[in-house]
Amino acid sequence: MSTSTSLESPATADAVGTNRWYLSAAPIVRALVHLCVPMAAAMIVGAVYNVINAGFVGSQHDPTLLAAITFGTPLLGLVMAIGGVFGVGGGALISRLLGAAENDPAQAGEIKHVSSFAVWGSVIAGAVFGAIGLVFLQPLVSLLGADAAAVPSTSAYVAVMLLFVPVLAAAFCLEQIVRAEGAARQVMVGLIASTVANVVFDVLFILVLHWGVAGAALAMGLSNLGVVLYFVIWLQRNSEHVSLAPRWFTLAPAVLKPVFGVGVGELLQSAFLIVTSLVLNNLAVAYGDSALAAMGVAVRIAQVPEFLVMGVTLGVLPLLAYSYGKGDRARLHSALRVSALTVGGIVLISSVTVFVFREQVFSAFVADPSVLVIGVTILTAQLVAMIVNGFTGLITSLFQATGRATSAIVMSMAQGVLFIPIVILGNLWFGLPGIIWSLTVSEGIVLVVGLVMWLASRRAIDRGLAEGSAERAEQVLVQAEA
Description:
Blueprint: H1 3-6, H2 15-24, H3 28-58, H4 63-100, H5 110-135, H6 137-143, H7 151-163, H8 165-180, H9 184-208, H10 212-238, H11 253-284, H12 289-315, H13 317-326, H14 329-356, H15 358-363, H16 369-401, H17 405-430, H18 432-481
């Protein structure tokens, strides 16, 4: 596929050429719609599934089963982070190489090494993590917080999940690689199909066979195995440069350094989120069940606008990386500008709407007046945090897209590092209001840190763009002489 012909218009290109056209030449607004809307839709469907899954498990009328899923959630987040180390880092590098290949076609040859390393690296790391977890299953269950009554069900849920860790990690990794090609719609199709399959398996394993939480974990594992097969088949049939063949696997520093440089930030961020959640729950429990219930409801209300924002900040990453690799300064800056305006518009409209009708919205979930009073305050704090977090996520995506590994890691670590002392001091000085507003305060500081690092790295980013632009000009000159 020649870049000189296939990137001109999606009307005359095949599916792969169309996806590449969105990265390379499509109007920015159209490119963002193509990349971000499917991402947000898939995330919202996943959130709806979480509610449905809890309903299936809750229908067994055994509180320890729901507790088991709650205790296993941090572990699932860590498993996804393992896939993120290879998938986010590898996907960002693949998009940069695809952009660079427009100037130097030889760059495309490296994509096979990157994709093979990312996928097989996630499988190997997942297998090691799963095996260690199974060997130390009981200590792990205790570490997750399961009490005596919940230990049997939690052990069953976690054991089945650990068996599927290589599959879960590979699924998340492959999702990022397909996104790196600009194939956001294919990612959405795969994730929604996986969610539907998960629901079908839930019905079979939980309602029909009565396997409880072990059935829920098995349903999750099998549905992710299906999405792995879907992504592998799609890449083999449609990707010109990506290869998952083991023969392309490499440990060359040119691959390891940029992949881990960006990907490790994902792992650290997930680890800190787990710690943050544990600290927050342990502090809030001292204020009674009303505080915990209010936090749970507020999180669910804020999820939809948060997912819309994340759809933009995550969806734009391949476009930023491709533009940077290509050396297209105007396109990268335009993508950033339009993304920032989109994030600002989403958070402004959703925050104002939810804030104005906060009492009515919250009362739709819970009728307890004590929970309602606390919940409205928590929801207000979360909406303010969401406004800040949207721009923080966009800055982080920029650092990941341009390969600014140190900056990306600092952004991933900053929230967790800052939140723990802030929430402890907030609880000590202000009680429950201090806990409620601690996340908002820490998010605000992280945004300031991100803006400072962005201003400090602008020259380095512009130099990288200039190098790509120079290669492009040289290629054009050579073609003209020919």
